[in-house]
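Why does residue order matter? Because the sequence determines the fold. Keep that principle in mind as you read this record.
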Amino acid sequence: MLVAVLGGVLGALPLVSAGAETVAEVVSLAGSPLAEGADGSRSLAAKGIVTGGERIVTDGSSQVGLMMGDVYVQLDKSTSVTILRSETGAPSLEVTSGRVRLVDTSAAGDSAFVILTPDSRATGRGSDTEVAVSSSGTKLCEGEADLAVSRRD
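Structure:
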C-alpha cells in the first residue's frame, strides 16, 4: 500500500554509497541504537558519526536523531535504515522497517532528500516528511514537503 503522492515532481537523484565518508552526526539518542557496517556492529553515541552505507538499527526501546546537513532525521523505535547520500549530496535513506521523520532545518526549507522503501522511491524537498514501513506496506506522510513517489522495481 502506498499513501500520499502530493506536490511537485523532482528529477531522479541517483544513489551512491558514500563508503567511509561521514554522512550524519548523532544529535540525540535514547536506548542503545546500533550502526551496522562492513566491519560489524557498534553502539552509537551522542555526537558520534554515521558513515555512508551503514545501517542504523533501533530496538523496541531505542531512538536516534541524526543531522545530515540541513536535514534532521528521527528514527523511531524498532526501525532499520541504511544511510546513504545521492550523487548530488542529498540525504538518502533506505528504510526497511519502522518509522522515520525528516525535518528540513534550513532557512529556505527546500533541502532535497531521497527515501527508498522495499516497494517505493520518493524524492522530495521541504520541511517535514514521515515514512513508515511495516508488513502491510509503506506509508508516506507529506507535511510541508513536495514529494514525487514511484514504484521501486
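The chain has no helices and 15 strands.
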